[in-house]
Amino acid sequence: MTEERDENKFIVERRAKLKKLRSQTNTPFPNDFKPHALAAQLEKTYSVATKQDLEALQHQTSVAGRVMRNRGSFIVIQDRSGTIQLYVTKHSRAFVKNLDLGDIIGIEGCLHRSGRGNLYIEIETFTLLTKSLRPLPDKFHGLADREMRYRQRYLDLIVNSDVRSSFRTRSNIINYIRHFLNCENFLEVETPMLQPIPGGAAARPFVTHHNAMAIDMYLRIAPELYLKRLVVGGFERVYEINRSFRNEGLSTRHNPEFTMLEFYQAYADYNDLMQFTERLLGGIAREVLGSHRVINTKRDEYGNKVGEVEYDFSEPFRRLSVLDSILMFNPAIACDELLNLQLIRRVAADLGISVDGNWGVGKLQTEIFEKTVEQHLEQPTFVTHYPIEVSPLARRSDTNPSVTDRFELFIGGREVANGFSELNDPEEQADRFSAQLNEKNFSDEEMMYFDEDYIKALEYGMPPTAGEGIGIDRLVMLFTDSSSIRDVLLFPHMKPENCL
What pTM, to 2 d.p., does this model score? Predict the structure, then answer.
């Protein structure tokens, strides 16, 4: 309560300053100042210039930014590139004295270097551009409350330079992905976010209503079926960096709204995509982070640091089938137990897995894999040959009809990508949709809908194709060493404060 009163006192004082400013000018928030330089540009351009060099040069410049520190003779402002010091001259002293931390100012002056070697600008002309009415967090403690950081991301970005850096990295990763795919002759496209049938994944959709058409519609859970329609139409390499929505729980790895990359390549199979993914992730590490080695912090269940792990993206990733991975991490389980329905039900029950009476061997294998294997897949690993029961859109393996030509990529115990050779047989796809629909009607709300138009598209003929989805948010978590998906989303979804 004391802190709240103190904050209110500071706000009252700042509002009084703004009121006085309004009485003195018709433009208390001017919009006519144009900075000619950025802090980082000046640091880079004059990095080797000595104090004497700058004295002789007498370079005039102008900058704008937010006041972050007041050191008496010097103030520090922050722009989008970084910070720079400003020297308070005699005629600018009254102006600076009236400033508050957080105010945004524009100044012009001559560039100098201090005796300690720091670059600074001597204030000659000055303008208050924006009056900040709320105080910034205490400079020693910063904005440490994670809940507040997520709710007030704008404040988080102002005071935490590492947060700004993470989101610049996110932008650079997306830019690299787009450049990489464009250079591989993929065409970037856009598909509907509002769909009459939610398809392309097993997930619960958000439902809305279109008033003019008087029908319910769904926010997309994946763009997959629309992208494959484009492959049918002759766009043989397509991709979309898309926003998708799933009406499911919140966790450190899940947000109802998220970003995915999905791409499809005709005349390719899932093996081609695994090699493609190795090149893509290796390129991100090298070009965006500057090294093919990426270090992540290991944390315990309470979030405490317990060590580090290094990922090497210059090497081919390990490949394991679902079945082999279960046997590897469960040495007490025999292979025969995973292939017999009665035996695998007992195995699942012994592992504490609630078994649905309609589940077959493939579904049970997947449940056992998720419970006992996923979290142990620390180094980059392609897990292949998923059971057909859990892969309704993937092509059946030619050598084993119970599994599909599908992989999921795991890094740090997290699923990062999912890809497969596409099922392009319209009759088999219709049968799979029907089986999924039966399960949906029977018990499972997350099973897929029957999309008749997609079947019609396949009946015109889709060439042999492979497709993949990569979770951008989880990828950014990996490359920025972030433990929660909220750390890589500018505005993560949160419960309303009055519901806490």
Answer: 0.92
